[in-house]
Amino acid sequence: MSSAMCLTIVLLILTNFKSQVMAAPASTPIPDYVLTYAPVVWLQSQDPYLPSDIGAQLLHTKPEVDYAPVQGAPSPLTLDNLDSLNALGNTSVYLTSLDDITTNPSWLNGVAPDASGKTNGAVSCVIVVNDKGGGNVDAFYFYFYAYNQGNYVDFLVVHQELGDHLERIGGMGLSLSREHNMIRFSNGKPTAVWFSQHSNGEAFTWDAVEKRGNRVVAYSAKGSHATYAIQGTHDHTIPNLNLPKGILNDQTDQGKLWDPILSAYSYQYTSAKTFAPYGNYPTAYLNYGGQWGDQQYKDSDSRQKSIVGQHKYVSGPNGPIFKQLDRKNVCPDNGNACIIRSILVP
Q1: What is the DSSP letter of 9?
Q2: Which pLDDT tens digit goes with each residue over 35-67?
Q3: 196: exposed, middle or buried (Cβ count in 10 Å: 0-12, 13-18, 19+)
Q4: More exposed terminus of the chain, fewer Cβ within 10 Å: N or C?
Q5: How many CB atoms lie within 10 A of CB 222?
Q6: Going by C-beta distance under 8 Å and a sequence separation of 6 or more, which residues neighbour residue 208?
């Protein structure tokens, strides 16, 4: 066996061993207030794509780079070794569905919450707590759905669904879905809430948001799973300009009530930018640098549809580590103004 081959094997063994090592536990218990004020989520009544189990996603996907299988990837992929893909493509890796998603395989549908709001048998939320010091704490609540369905475009004679993707975690899509809430706390008291929506979102003061007891209420949009502070129709064509109706509309209402913290993994985000679990939870998947879902289908793919440069099937999102967990403002720094509203708007 050549020395180069030996070195390759050793590197792969070390990479996989690193993924299996348990992360150091959080230095303190999860703060009570992170759970006391945590969001509850109204799922849209006609949404077929419900919260999903994060780990189960890996049973239905394979890692690819540029539409080709990743050579040397661990098998099976698990939440404890997913970050080993960083050495085999990193941000170019896509967790690609084993099934043709246009056939709507049943695993995309997720798990309906029971009467208590729990997604039994499905860990569908990730909580990340960043203690910034001086009594200032940001708590992120990431929601995971196996599939995000795009919106229909209604403009002149056009009626086309755009922006579907398999995912995030997330984004989760984890997504983990990319969609999430963040609550900013000062000395244990909530002061503001971020609602992520597609490429941007909205922030509101704590006094402004709807509550169920002590807990903030969020509304998950049909298919897209963007999070909103009120129910109804939400135009999101232009960031920071949420009109009652426009070209791209999300729909929210009070369907099933989901309590994400009843089936969640929780972590302390440390000053070293690592994740310390608050329990016996996997951590390697949080360091995965690739995408949670298929790469955008090529224009030559018969399943792909597009209009004015916008595609029906787009790439899945990346994970929580890319969501500015150490942000300065309540809003992420994405070039849009950070407006913290004191009244509820669409």
Answers
A1: H
A2: 999 999 999 999 999 999 999 999 999 999 999
A3: buried
A4: N
A5: 21
A6: 229, 341, 342, 343, 344
DSSP annotation of 331 reads S
Q: What angle do CA 25, 30, 32 make, to 5 degrees?
A: 165
Q: What is the pLDDT of residue 13?
A: 38
3-state secondary structure of 16: helix
Single pTM value for the model: 0.88
Residue 141 is inside which H or E element, if any?
A: strand 136-143
Structure tokens given for 117? 């709001």
Q: CA 310 to CA 313: how far, in whole Å? A: 9
Q: Which amino acid is at 41?
A: V
**CA-to-CA distance for 225 and 45, rounded, in angstroms?**
12
Cα separation, 120 vs 114, in Å, equals 7
Buried b (16+ CB within 10 A) or exposed e, 17-43: eebeeebeebeeebbebbeebbbbbbb
Q: Which residues are CB-neighbours of 178 under 8 A, at least 6 positions away?
A: 167, 168, 170, 171, 172, 196, 317, 318, 323
